[in-house]
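User: Show me a protein chain along with its predicted structure.
Assistant: Here is one chain, sequence first, then structure tokens.
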Amino acid sequence: MTDRETKGGAAWFLEAWGETGRFAGRWLKYFLLLSIVELFFCVALAGAVYVAANEGRVLRGLTGAGFILVASAIVGFVAAVKLAIVLTVSGTVKAKGTGRRILDALFTRLLGITSENPRGDHELTRTLHGMPVEKVKAHLDQAGRAMLKGRVVGIAVPRFALWLANKAQAVLIWATVRVIVAYCTHGKSRSENMDLLALRASLAEDVDELLAQRLREGAVRFALIVAVLSVAAGWIVVEVLRRMPIGRKF
């Protein structure tokens, strides 16, 4: 991956995924499915809050149900947007070899390779042969931030599709960074040195599978966290309302 591909436009991302419009279409499909699930969950949670907070006071029950319905719908909308992005990219990671491309791009920056210096920085290359585990994450995070400076711009598609592409790009880059960190630090002490160039060679064949797996697991974990927090918020609302004399008791 060259600077020309990444500078200012992140063309590598669009090349890997094809037309941004098709990406937006896949995202919309997942978003609609998740929105339906989220709608049923919000209604069920609001109903549970109404029953628990009512205790003969209809207004109190309606107040709690209305509040939790609106709040959970807002949170659910944001969660559906994020989850749809993750599911969209995870479905084609292996087919497009996206993880391998990001891995190569990260190491391009770690090696200091640019159009002006195609051989890279000799000193940087030397340090990668023996880098302490505790420094690996910091260097990869720095390389990831450098990649994210190239936003998906200048393409003749709606702004919303470009926004989705930029968000998906960030999800893929940071997930790949986490995959590399987890792979190289597994069973290692913080003071142990790692040969990142050897790591790159050993990880290259498996990075797409590991990336897709991490994205799926992250999506499930995120959905469960949102659900648990929503239920906890409903319980708090019920407890607060029970202490408030709202409405006439029947």
